[in-house]
């Protein structure tokens, strides 16, 4: 099998790679019921030491920067309450945490969640957090540019491996809200 984007040696449908995914991600793939069939979620094996975006595109090709997205966990605070949410933006952009995210969450203050909070709350590895398998009650803020791509490279829940997903598949994830301008340069 060949990946729809990039050049990877080991490529297979995610339902055939459940043993390579963290439990929350594997569960989400098992229960997948979106308009895009689960077999169109593709797992590619990658070197874990190259999981971070800049190193990843250096080794796997700069063209992937425009076809990949980062999922980050943010914390919005208001009146002593903290709301965790995830944001999915193109890898060449950054999340507008203090503007778009803060307003969307109705928070007085918003910031990136600490690593321990992000990994503990998601059950995923830092550097591999993905929107597939997040807690169902979390808001998932998705930049409109991500949804518009035919295929998007995202984390797989671990630092080893990535998922390649049709952009429109993000519309069916729990809590998904598509937002113009979530990712800024």
CATH level-4 homologous superfamily: YbaK/aminoacyl-tRNA synthetase-associated domain
The number of E-state strands comes to 11
Order of strands in the sheet with most strands: 6-3-4-7-10
Question: What is the radius of gyration computed over CA atoms, rounded to a whole number of angstroms?
Answer: 15 Å
Question: Can I get a quick summary?
Answer:
The protein has 185 residues and is of the alpha+beta class.
Commentary on this structure:
With about 180 residues, the chain is α+β, with helices and mostly antiparallel strands. It has one domain: Alpha-Beta Complex (YbaK protein), CATH 3.90.960.10. Helix content is about 20%, strand content about 25%. It contains 5 helices and 11 strands. The strands form 3 sheets. A 5-stranded mixed β-sheet has the order 6-3-4-7-10. The longest helix has 9 residues. The radius of gyration is 15 Å and the shape is globular. The mean pLDDT is about 95. One of its GO terms (molecular function) is aminoacyl-tRNA deacylase activity. Pfam families: tRNA_edit. This is YbaK/aminoacyl-tRNA synthetase-associated domain-containing protein. InterPro entries: YbaK/aa-tRNA-synt-asso_dom_sf, YbaK/aa-tRNA-synth-assoc-dom. It comes from Streptomyces antnestii.
Q: Helices and strands in order, then pairings?
A:
Layout: E1 11-13, H1 23-30, E2 42-44, H2 53-60, E3 69-78, E4 81-90, E5 94-95, H3 97-105, E6 109-112, H4 115-122, E7 140-143, H5 144-147, E8 152-155, E9 162-165, E10 176-179, E11 183-184
Parallel strand pairs: 4-7, 7-10
Antiparallel strand pairs: 1-2, 2-9, 3-4, 3-6, 5-11, 8-9
